[in-house]
Amino acid sequence: MVKTIQVRELISKNIKSTKNKYVDKLMPYIFFVAASISIITTIGIVYTLIFDGLKFFREVPLREIFSTRLAPLASNPSFGILPIINGTIITSIIAMCVAIPIGLSTAIYLSEYASDKVRKKIKPLVEVLAGIPTIVYGFFAYSFVTPLLMTIIPDLGAKNALSPGIVMGIMITPLVASLSEDAMNSVPNEMREGALALGSTKLEVTFKVVIPAAISGIIASFVLGISRAVGETMIVVIGSGSSKNFTFDITQSMQTMTAYIVEFTSGDAGSGTLGYYSLYAVGLLLFVFTLLMNLLAQYISRKYREEY
User: Fold this and answer.
1) Residue from 108, 247, 252 nearest 178 by CA
2) What is the pTM of this model?
3) 82-132 pLDDT tens trace
4) Can you tell me the distance from the alpha carbon of 107 to that of 221, in angstroms, rounded to the nearest whole number?
5) Which residues of 159-171 are buried (b: 16+ CB within 10 A; e: fewer)?
6) What is the dihedral of CA 200, 201, 203, 205, to 10 degrees?
7) Coil, helix or strand for 300?
8) Strand partners, 170
9) pLDDT tens digit string along 29-87?
10) Could you say which DSSP state residue 305 is in?
């Protein structure tokens, strides 16, 4: 005769296990420590940037910081940050001018026009671009894109802002395409079917129904793309050079905030010098800029999110 074991007996047996009691008490603390690692890391980064960045701001007056002359290694050094801010903004704008139309068009095709079979093949191929190391993109910009652009723009310098900006846009395209496609896929099919039933064409449904309904996710992808472009390093270091001139000519060399940090961390600035602390000031500025971009993306997503 098979002995019937009651559920209460199993529960009671499990509760009486001393080993299980210790495990149950210990696991919440382990999970708490794991969850706290990212918070502690962020606090440590912010503390380091603020603590060492303030040493720079105490020594350099604001009128010099917001000037157009950046010559940290000159006999009479100057620490104007406008040239590197200008270079960062210009290369980011060029990148988004490439990533937004291509990425959004890709998302529209995958979401509204491609069959499930085609989507399953194309989307992974598009996302492969996001896995390519950025240093490879940098060499691609310098050795292929720049010579190609020189045949079209004779005055284009070997180091310029246009080439790395275009390649950054190619790199960001998977981010924009993937997030935008996810946002458009979240729009209920009933809305599409209703618009088609009223006589709308596929294109009209896409631009007048689907995109307005998914606009929060689409704009958030744009903002996150800008944040990614601002923080890019190796592409601009290799393709744009280290010119610290304040210029709006995209055919000439420019330096971004990340490129400035890379240049000085290679050993040009001695520890404890004013140039050394300028690295933390630029890093703090970059951190604040990217943080604001991420907060803006979250705000847009929450404000314009449509729930169905």
Assistant:
1) 108
2) 0.82
3) 888 888 999 999 999 999 999 999 999 988 888 888 888 888 888 788 788
4) 11
5) bbbbbbbbbbbbb
6) 30
7) helix
8) none
9) 888 888 889 889 888 888 888 888 888 888 888 888 888 888 877 778 788 888 888 88
10) -
